TrEMBL record:
Pfam families: LRR_8 (PF13855). It comes from the Eukaryota. Keywords: Leucine-rich repeat, Repeat. This is Leucine-rich repeat-containing protein 20. The keyword Repeat applies. It comes from Capitella teleta. SMART domains: LRR_TYP. GO terms for cellular component: cytoplasm. InterPro entries: Leu-rich_rpt, Leu-rich_rpt_typical-subtyp, LRR_dom_sf, LRR_domain-containing.
Length: 169
């Protein structure tokens, strides 16, 4: 635990000039409140929580990092997302691959500038196509290796033809 805390503290002080906070591979089971204090003087535009053990994402991530353009939550155990994630008005890339999602959280469809949504290797069977079509900024969705129903698979192929969206199935 002490080693984990030291690594997180070090990473918080190493925010790149571009505002990237790398908390990947830190063995986190939750987002430590201390990161917000340690990074309060930085403009954080990208956060990487890849390869941790997160079961939920703290709503404070959206509250404290309102200028996020990229959020990597790949390879965790997430089943849902905080309802305030749509307050991230500059978020362009959201990586939720390799989690425990059985559906796309409704808040994802309300993220105003989301361009790229990565959902590969989850347990998603259905996608609300109406909501997906209404995402005006969306340019790419990666839904590879999910147990999609045949109907959803067909609808996604149609979406790629209807919209300028790259669909990775």
């Amino acid at each position: 635990m002490a080693k984990q805390a030291a690594l997180v503290a070090l990473r918080c002080t190493e925010i790149s000039e571009k505002g990237h906070l790398n908390l990947s591979d830190c063995d986190l089971t939750k987002v430590p409140d201390g990161i917000f204090m340690l990074t309060r003087s930085s403009v954080v535009t990208s956060v990487d929580f890849e390869r941790n053990k997160l079961r939920r994402l703290s709503p404070e991530v959206a509250n404290k990092y309102p200028q996020l353009t990229e959020l990597n939550l790949c390879q965790n155990f997430l089943q849902d997302l905080p309802l305030n994630l749509d307050s991230l008005s500059e978020l362009r890339v959201l990586d939720l691959s390799w989690n425990s999602l059985h559906f796309i959280p409704a808040v994802v469809f309300r993220i105003p500038k989301l361009e790229r949504l990565i959902l590969k290797q989850n347990q998603i069977t259905r996608i609300p196509m109406k909501e997906l079509r209404e995402m005006k900024s969306l340019r790419s969705i990666d839904i590879e290796n999910n147990p999609l129903t045949e109907e959803t698979f067909t609808e996604l192929q149609g979406l790629a033809a209807d919209k300028i969206v790259t669909v990775h199935l």
